[in-house]
Amino acid sequence: MRAVDVQGTFFTYDDGTEALAGIDFHVEEGEFVAILGSNGSGKTTLIQLLVGLLKAKSGQIVLSGREIGSLTAEELYQRVGLVFQNPNDQLFAATVEEDVAFGPRNLNLPEAEVQMRITEVLTAVAALPLRGRAIHHLSFGEQKRVSLAGVLAMRPAVLILDEPTAGLDPAGEAQMMQLLKKLNREERMTVILATHSVDMLPLFANRIYVLDHGRVLQQGPSEEIFCHQEMIVRAKLRLPYVSRLMYEMKRHDGVPIDGLPLTIGEARAQLLELIPKEMILPGIEEIGP
Ligand SMILES: Nc1ncnc2c1ncn2[C@@H]1O[C@H](COP(=O)(O)OP(=O)(O)OP(=O)(O)O)[C@@H](O)[C@H]1O
Ligand SMILES: [Mg+2]
């Protein structure tokens, strides 16, 4: 079944700004989908409609077969959970433990179950040692992980994240993306994330929606999306750096590269094909993707 099905959705803010101008967007159960778009393209607005924080003026939003307006708050929380871009907008309790417990307690779960979920989700986001810490003493990256834990504690079928890696250092960014990939692959959680960072995306997203001025410019698998360079430029985005390098080598130096590698792993495999065997040192340690 489709986890999320948005059709013909428009949204205009009270001051007259048209943020979404007829969006069709769908996500199947178990998919990992990225919403890619420049600042102001409508990513946050779309995401807020998906979790019921904003109400569409027209069009239809269906979550796992039910129209969003017909769901009780509890049914909505079971379907979708949103991790905000800024943890300050999400975290409000004094301590990590209290914050993560807030949602499950609101569901009137038995306290033993609440405690179990706290341990489970803090372990999942590598934040168990932070359990008793004051929220306002945490670093930004730690706050981001705790925000994610609070949403996971509600066990939503679809996890939605607004710019999950913004403000994280390179190691934090990689850690966050690996964690989301793990939740998607191992826990079969459907993941939707909004971002304008292109370099990590092809490694993780099954499909990408490119948004521009509140419209979907294009959607499809990442290897297809990045082949449409004019569209990427029109959306004020860019190719992943490694793809750009390979593209330039193909175009200006005539290096015979097939298609367009999107990841370092793909680029490496293609370059190794072109380098004479005797120039390659055997037995060098494997690198990651
Ligand atoms: N509360 C608001 N009132 C009026 N206009 C708004 C409001 N929030 C957003 N907008 C406008 O709606 C449009 C889409 O904004 P949105 O926040 O959805 O973009 P975004 O893709 O999330 O951008 P960013 O990458 O900067 O987070 C922009 O033109 C923005 O100025
Ligand atoms: Mg935004």
Strand-helix topology:
Blueprint lengths: L1 E11 L5 E11 L3 E6 L5 H8 L7 E6 L2 E2 L5 H7 E4 L12 H11 L4 H14 L15 H13 L5 E5 L7 H17 L3 E6 L5 H4 L2 E6 L2 E7 H4 L3 H6 L6 H13 L10 H11 L15
The structure holds adenosine-5'-triphosphate and magnesium ion (MG).
Low-pLDDT residue spans:
none
- The sequence of SSEs as H and E is EEEHEEHEHHHEHEHEEHHHH
CATH homologous superfamily name of the largest domain?
Answer: P-loop containing nucleotide triphosphate hydrolases
Quickly count the domains: 2
CATH architecture of the largest domain: 3-Layer(aba) Sandwich
The top-level CATH class of the largest domain is Alpha Beta
Helix content: 25-40%
**Biggest beta-sheet profile:** 6 strands, mixed
**In angstroms, what separates the terminal alpha carbons?**
32 Å
Rough outline: globular
Separate helix tally: 11
Which structural class do the helices and strands define?
alpha/beta
Give the number of DSSP strands. 10
